[in-house]
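Final report, section 2: Outcomes. Of the targets proposed, Alpha-tectorin-like is the one most frequently requested by collaborating groups, and we therefore present its record in full.
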Amino acid sequence: MFCFFLYLAALSMLTGTTATSQTFTNSGEMNISSCPITYYGQKYDKVYVAFNASRFAVCFIGVYKPGIKNDCIVMSGGTADRGDLAILSREIPTGSGVHKLLPNLKNAGKCVNIIPLKDSQQSEIEQVELGNFGTQAILAIKTYSGYTHVDVEADAKVNGLTVSKQKFQTAETSKGVITDVSGCRLSGVAYKTNTTVKDPNTCSTVTCDVNGVAGAVSYCGPMERCQGDGRCVLNTICTVTGSTVIDFVGRVRSVPDRCGYTLMRPSSIPGLKVLGVFQERRRKDVSFLDRVILQLDQAGVQISLEQGGRVQLNNKVLMLNATAQVVHGVELSKDQMGVTAKISASNHTVSVLFDGSVTLIHMTGPSGAHMPGLCGNSSRTLSKEKVSEHSAPGCEIHYDDAADSTIDCNATTEWCNLLKQAPFTACSRHIDPEPFTTACTRTLCKYPAVDGLKCQFLEAYARACTRHSNVTVEGWRSKTSCSAFPQDFVTCQDRFCSAHEFCGESNNGAETRCLCRAIFASKYKSTGAFGEPTVCGQKSASVTLAKCLLEDKSIDYSVLHLNDQTCTGEMDNLTHMVMFSFDSSSTCGTVVTANNSQIIYKNTIMTRNSSMFGLINRQIPVHIDFSCFYSQPDVNSLAIKLKHSSVIQQITSGEWSYNLSMKAYTSSDRVQAIQSSNEIQLDEKIWVELKTDGLAEKMVVVVTDSCWATDQPSPSGSLRYDLIIKGCPNPADQTVKVEGNGLGTSNYFSFNTFQFSGKTGDVYLHCRVELCVRQGNTCTPTCSQAERRRRSAMPKYKDENPAFINLAWTY
Ligand SMILES: *[C@@H]1O[C@H](CO)[C@@H](O)[C@H](O)[C@H]1NC(C)=O
Ligand SMILES: *[C@@H]1O[C@H](CO)[C@@H](O)[C@H](O)[C@H]1NC(C)=O
Ligand SMILES: *[C@@H]1O[C@H](CO)[C@@H](O)[C@H](O)[C@H]1NC(C)=O
Ligand SMILES: *[C@@H]1O[C@H](CO)[C@@H](O)[C@H](O)[C@H]1NC(C)=O
Ligand SMILES: *[C@@H]1O[C@H](CO)[C@@H](O)[C@H](O)[C@H]1NC(C)=O
Ligand SMILES: *[C@@H]1O[C@H](CO)[C@@H](O)[C@H](O)[C@H]1NC(C)=O
Ligand SMILES: *[C@@H]1O[C@H](CO)[C@@H](O)[C@H](O)[C@H]1NC(C)=O
Ligand SMILES: *[C@@H]1O[C@H](CO)[C@@H](O)[C@H](O)[C@H]1NC(C)=O
Ligand SMILES: *[C@@H]1O[C@H](CO)[C@@H](O)[C@H](O)[C@H]1NC(C)=O
Ligand SMILES: *[C@@H]1O[C@H](CO)[C@@H](O)[C@H](O)[C@H]1NC(C)=O
Ligand SMILES: *[C@@H]1O[C@H](CO)[C@@H](O)[C@H](O)[C@H]1NC(C)=O
Ligand SMILES: *[C@@H]1O[C@H](CO)[C@@H](O)[C@H](O)[C@H]1NC(C)=O
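The predicted structure is given below as tokens.
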């Protein structure tokens, strides 16, 4: 030690090759750039020297002031109050005396800053030397006879904190002492060279090597975080954004389909499952997280977090606000950032935040939890994580869509890489941005940056950071022009979309509405249809259109109606399907036409008459025809033997099913039907009514085409007497009167009873009945001469399959 100091001192004195000489009194700032000193890992090329009454301080950042953070060596100064600086360049090879004295010193010496201190009488008090050994440094002190204290103190301070305190007796310092002032620093904390210490603040093992380089290795697991007291606790975040799952340790996985998967099933909270259900939006080949389901097996409940902040508890919608509401042990709340569900058990807390697009699942608690599900390891086999009760049939089918040529993947990548730049760097120490940039580029290179998607990934990263580490990334929104709250969440708030819809932007972001999902829409877009084909019922027809398909073409369903403008579409508020229909009681202006084989019911969905709008309107004219075709009533004659005075026949054929009855009465009011016990006199007037039940009167009427009597059950019996011919009374029989024929679903006729001459026994009355589609009054037979001249003889429409009915009575 003695020798070394003298060696240095001798060099400086003997050679006199000092580069510069700067002097100071009381204090001074000195340029040591020609012999910079690396002090605890930090290289300085200036020193600030200062005395106070008892101390001499050499500082590197500024003039020494007690209590101010600085890197300093504070020494006893004796009575010195002035000094100067000489810098001496000199190679001191490794293995020299000084290296033997200080075994931690590994580098060769390069130069030395020599500071002789004197008092006002210019007598030498003390000499201080700072030697540059590359990334290491030494401090040497020698006292002279003018130094009157019994010892010399030398405190090394880093960042204002004393990292070493040394005291040397003047007996030693008068010969010269030398000490190592090398070290490392990490996050402002100083470490001595060749040391390994545990840092409880960061739960890491810090190693300071001889080159002044410190390294820290955390002893917490990848899902854990240091609690600051040396203990690691579970603190981990899983993010699902779009189709990408960033699991608890940062592995990225894209869910390729539209099924439901287990995101997490923490062993520490038995019975809790967090499930994610994916759905496509604008493209068939990109799926998005659509809903997050918290399944509580023990309580047998399921809480579903959906788009627009909608929350359902077992299919019942819950109204939430910022005040947490506890439902089966789950705290539920809603604010401008989304819906949060929080559940705790066994000191573990799981909080699930969902804003309709992104979910953050944050889990904290004691370390060592086992975590099945995609959040635990996103590389797990998908089929094993699939939840069948939340997976629609065919959800795993893979679709391909043509690439979107408007996407510039280079620009997208540049945008996504913002996550690796300031101000996001404030977070990079806590959460690796790489998985988020990967998720961002994967999605945005394929899917258009609409519906707030562009900001979604930045938002997700900033939020994950705040949740995980309480670090707020400041100013990123202004730098990126992203709005203060998740856009999708705010604009879709409380908007309910049906299963085949999602909430998104339309008109270039000018408005938000429920848009058709791509796979749903593709079924119709290829044919240009707005919905399902016409459903024809027996007496009704309906057309069901999808509201979202209409809106894609800027059609507002509420301005549409049928031929009769009071018949408007009815929207089902769960399915968002709009139904237009008519039936026999409200025909809605349906036009019925017929040819020999078919009856056609036709109506049209059209836009409201323009006179009902104001001065202008933005409705595209709509004209959607829909028709139902029915085959003609196909009724076969049934041979029924009757001995009664009334008969009902049930007739079913094709779409038509009706009852046809024939009853005889003794008075024109047709109240009291003739019973078989009644006695009817010969030449007594009777009224026979032919009546149908179950036909749509507004569309179809009954025409009695002909009635005749035979003496045998067969309508073609050899004896035949005509009462009605071609819908009109037999002109040869003046007793016959026909009433209401072709006007409705019943008609009747009257005649005077008779018997076949020379015959006794049964008389069989047969009628041939036809159905006629109502078109004006064309179903009414024209019986008078005058009428016949005006019109063609019979209804335009002739039933090829008439119904036959007969009534028998005995004399
Ligand atoms: C320190 O000295 C060097 C030359 O030794 C000179 O180049 C440099 O500008 C000086 N720095 C200051 C801050 O005076
Ligand atoms: C001189 O500095 C030392 C070290 O901080 C301090 O303890 C002491 O009080 C100071 N003395 C005077 C007179 O300022
Ligand atoms: C580092 O210090 C240990 C003792 O703490 C010592 O045994 C070892 O030799 C030192 N290593 C070097 C390279 O100086
Ligand atoms: C939040 O909701 C709860 C329960 O529905 C209600 O009691 C409370 O008044 C609401 N708070 C606010 C601020 O609306
Ligand atoms: C939760 O933590 C507290 C305090 O650390 C401990 O006393 C208690 O046993 C823990 N409970 C469970 C269920 O682990
Ligand atoms: C994650 O899951 C995959 C597939 O099952 C497996 O190969 C891998 O080892 C798992 N990784 C971890 C860290 O458990
Ligand atoms: C994207 O970048 C690649 C490589 O940097 C370049 O070859 C390519 O031309 C760029 N494409 C566009 C559209 O700018
Ligand atoms: C997060 O930081 C805020 C202020 O920055 C502080 O008030 C709060 O206590 C911190 N929370 C945690 C959990 O550290
Ligand atoms: C649908 O309408 C019914 C009755 O009008 C109403 O009770 C229900 O809340 C509505 N549902 C939705 C999802 O709007
Ligand atoms: C009746 O109309 C239908 C539908 O227009 C048509 O398909 C059919 O060929 C027509 N039949 C006759 C006989 O004209
Ligand atoms: C529209 O309404 C006006 C007045 O009510 C009527 O004169 C016109 O015929 C209607 N046009 C159509 C196409 O129904
Ligand atoms: C026809 O009559 C039968 C028996 O009285 C009855 O069950 C049925 O509902 C009737 N059908 C129609 C279409 O009125």
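Residues 450 and 475 are 23 Å apart (CA to CA).
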